[in-house]
Please model this.
Amino acid sequence: MDWCYAAASVVGLSHIRAGTRLQDARHCFVFGEKGDRRLFAVIADGAGSAEFGGQGGSIICRTVGSEARSAFHDAGSLPDNGAIWSWLDIARDRIQLAASRRERTPRDFAATLVLVMASRDEVVTAHVGDGAIVARDISTLRSTRRRLETWHGRDDVTLADERASQRGTQTST
Model:
């Protein structure tokens, strides 16, 4: 399957009101040889209330993108939930390090995440915070779709929050 993607960002109302810059970040790529190509896309939106939210989003996208590329090199299938959780843990650790270096809290780097990975046979999605993934022509997928555990409907949950606050998470396999 040949994959194609497009990405665009628009400054949100909370950023306009606060006079802050666009705080979106993204990392997208297509990996593999013809006939076995996989799509990867991660989008992070810095929280308007977080002074360094844009930098948090950039850290998230760079980290998760790098980890995904390594995973794609090592495996013929899409990563499982455990691998994705480990990427999020690494991203959270890097946010905590960035916050510590600036004598700030991780919450100052708060950002949401939306992730999609797709192969010819499978789609994996994940999100932290608010966000959504919309797929078109899903009938062409031949096997199971998986979704990572997610926090639903909570704008205040970000990668900067502790994983222990996951009460009410849902898993769909």
Q: What stands out?
A: Confidence is low (pLDDT under 50) at residues 142-173. The chain is about 30% helix and 25% strand. The first helix runs from residue 13 to 18.
